[in-house]
Structure formats: C-alpha cells, structure tokens
Design a protein that fits this description.
Blueprint: E1 5-7, E2 10-12, H1 18-38, H2 46-65, H3 70-98, H4 107-114
Antiparallel strand pairs: 1-2
Helix pairs in contact: 1-2
Length: 115
C-alpha cells in the first residue's frame, strides 16, 4: 500500500483529486487576498470563499469515505469483534434470567426465595 498524502500533519484522501482541489483553493485564496489588499478593491471575499470552503468540505467527506486507511480498517475489525463478544455476553445473561439462575437474581429476591 502506498503512503497517504499528509499536509501539516493531516492525512488527506487520495480519490477524486482532493489534493489538487485543496491546492487550487489555497493558492487562489492567497492570490485573491493579496490582490484585494494591494489594489484596495474592497471586494468582499467572504462569500465566495465560504461557498468554496463548503464545497471543499463536502469533497473531503466524500473522498475520505472512498479512501479508508489500514488503521481505520483494523480499528473497525477490533470494534466489531468487541461487539460480538458483548452480544454473546448479553445472550448468556438473558438465558440465565429465563432459567432463574441465582447469579442474576437480586439479593432481596434471593433472601425471600430461601425463606
């Protein structure tokens, strides 16, 4: 498996050209900010950049969904194994409840049962 893209310590997804989209966004934002400052154009950059950030965030979420890494897969496997053991434990308790086993009977009920 190839190494994932990282940028400033963050893992970036590979599919759907996300890294290119992020690079174009960062470069465009810097250029637009410099031009706006130097030419004193007083153009409000907030709304175009806010819209672009929203599209970039959606792109990130979609690309990340199609690019799971090995650590996520291993974590998910361990989680599923843990849940299956928990299910077995719950089923065991249910069986003991239906069999009226003393290990699941509250102490006051056990005392009444023995009298």
């Amino acid at each position: 498996m190839t190494e994932p893209y990282t940028w400033l310590g963050f893992r970036l997804p590979r599919p759907f050209y996300f890294v290119r989209h992020l690079s174009v966004f960062v470069a465009s934002s810097i250029v637009l900010g410099i031009l706006n400052f130097m030419l004193t154009m007083k153009i409000p950059l907030f709304w175009p950049l806010a819209g672009w950030v929203t599209v970039l965030a959606i792109h990130y979420l979609v690309a990340s969904a199609y690019d799971p890494d090995e650590a996520w897969v291993e974590e998910r496997i361990v989680d599923l194994r843990g849940r299956s053991y928990d299910l077995d434990h719950i089923q065991n308790i249910e069986k003991r409840i239906h069999a009226r086993d003393d290990s699941v009977t509250p102490p006051p009920d056990r005392d009444q049962k023995s009298n």
